[in-house]
Write a structure and sequence with these properties.
By secondary structure, the chain is of the alpha+beta class. It is built from 14 helices and 21 strands. The strands form six sheets. A five-stranded parallel sheet has the order 6-2-1-10-21, covered by helices on one side. A four-stranded antiparallel sheet has the order 12-17-16-13.
């Protein structure tokens, strides 16, 4: 008999283990990959954005769709201020950027992860890597391990197996088949925070790798002022990632190339009748960059330019794309275990003593600290409630 079992060594699983250990439970954590926290470390390569320091109301409003009360409660218990305090508790200094995003001062994930694992090991955590969960055998959890098949029969289990993106780092979504085979209805996975596929014409080749700055992306009522980059395969970057849910639902995407100019000011800057080429006018009158001008010509109606329509196109250039990039390229996924399948403690209704946390739950959020905060929060929420279940 194992006391408390945590399956998955990402932020949600580690936070669940932390809560269980803090409550005095004996905890075994298993991870399918050779090391702990691989996606966490990858997220920190460009600077680990831990959370967004902002009032709680605006913070919650960043999460997509109707927020389930359980997720709201978990975030209320462990929101931005608590993330900052927890990081400081691991002796990791932080700073808040100009946009409110919180980062470790060293701008890396590895020192934080090392400090966290040292804390957990000091509390008595037992860890196994290269243990892949393959399903249940009645109340036992079955694993493929380097030593062959192993089973553990825990008093309480927390699953934190991630979504279905970045499979090479561990979030492959394979667990969904075993859940479905045991009658647990799941919401199908969908990509989130992902780029767009665009079939570029040859004239765009010189602009691959170039950044689009000082623009505004629109999809229905959703607006993003983030940057994006033109890649060989399409458009990448925070500017388009934020609008993934709307694009996923089929909402038309447009681009405002001059978001700081009102329509009237824009028309005042443009000549009533063009006396030179359109590209030259856009460059000289509006100071548009070459990449913006190239994109304008890529997506404007083909054929001779209708000058009367140019101002409207500059403010709402239709972005013709072929949909979202593949799910495994997505930073995160929507879908997974629905909250209605769980109690308000994140315990599966059909499997008492089995809790779920992190990206394997059906919620969605943009990048910018929201994803990681919800993984921390739901891991802690599940771990604290699991700690009170079926004590030895």
């Amino acid at each position: 008999m194992t006391d408390a079992l945590v399956i998955g060594g990402g932020p949600a699983g580690l936070m669940a283990a932390d809560a269980l250990l803090e409550a005095g439970r004996a905890v075994t954590l298993v991870e399918a990959k050779p090391s702990i926290g691989r996606k966490f470390l990858m997220a920190g390569k460009s600077g680990l954005n831990l959370t967004k320091m902002q009032p709680f109301g605006p913070f919650l409003s960043a999460y997509t769709g109707d927020m389930h009360p359980t997720l709201k409660a978990a975030l209320h218990a462990f929101g931005p201020e608590q993330v900052q305090d927890w990081t400081h508790g691991l002796a990791q200094e932080t700073f808040t950027g100009s946009t409110g995003r919180l980062f470790p001062k060293v701008m890396k994930a590895s020192p934080l992860l090392r400090a966290w694992l040292a804390r957990l090991d000091g509390m008595g955590l037992t860890r196994h890597t290269r243990w892949r969960w393959t399903g249940w055998d009645h109340n036992a959890c079955v694993f493929d391990t380097p030593e062959g098949q192993r089973t553990l029969t825990p008093r309480v289990t927390v699953f934190a197996l991630g979504g279905s993106s970045w499979a090479r780092l561990g979030s492959d979504g394979v667990w969904a088949d075993a859940f479905a085979a045991n009658g647990i209805d799941l919401v199908p996975f969908q990509p989130s925070n992902v780029g767009l596929k665009v079939d570029w014409s040859d004239h765009m080749i010189p602009y691959f790798g170039k950044a689009l700055k000082a623009v505004a992306w629109h999809a229905g009522d959703a607006v993003s002022r983030g940057e994006a980059a033109i890649s060989k395969h399409g458009l990448e970057g925070g500017g388009v990632y934020t609008l993934t849910p709307a694009v996923r639902d089929g909402v038309e995407l447009t681009l405002d190339l001059v978001p700081d100019l009102s329509p009237d000011r824009l028309k005042a800057k443009l000549p009533a009748t063009p006396k030179s080429g359109v590209s030259k006018i856009l460059r000289n009158s509006l100071r548009l960059t070459p990449v913006k001008i190239a994109l304008f010509h890529e997506f404007r109606p083909k054929g001779p330019v209708d000058w009367a329509k140019v101002p409207d196109l500059l403010k709402a250039l239709p972005i013709h794309h072929a949909g979202l990039r593949p799910m495994d390229e997505a930073i995160s996924t929507a879908g997974g275990v629905p909250f209605d399948a769980m109690t308000d403690t994140l315990m599966l209704k059909d499997r008492p003593g089995t809790f779920c946390a992190g990206e394997m739950l059906d919620w969605d959020a943009p990048t910018g600290g929201y994803l990681l905060t919800a993984c921390f929060a739901t891991g802690l929420w599940a771990g604290r409630h699991a700690a009170d279940f079926n004590r030895p």
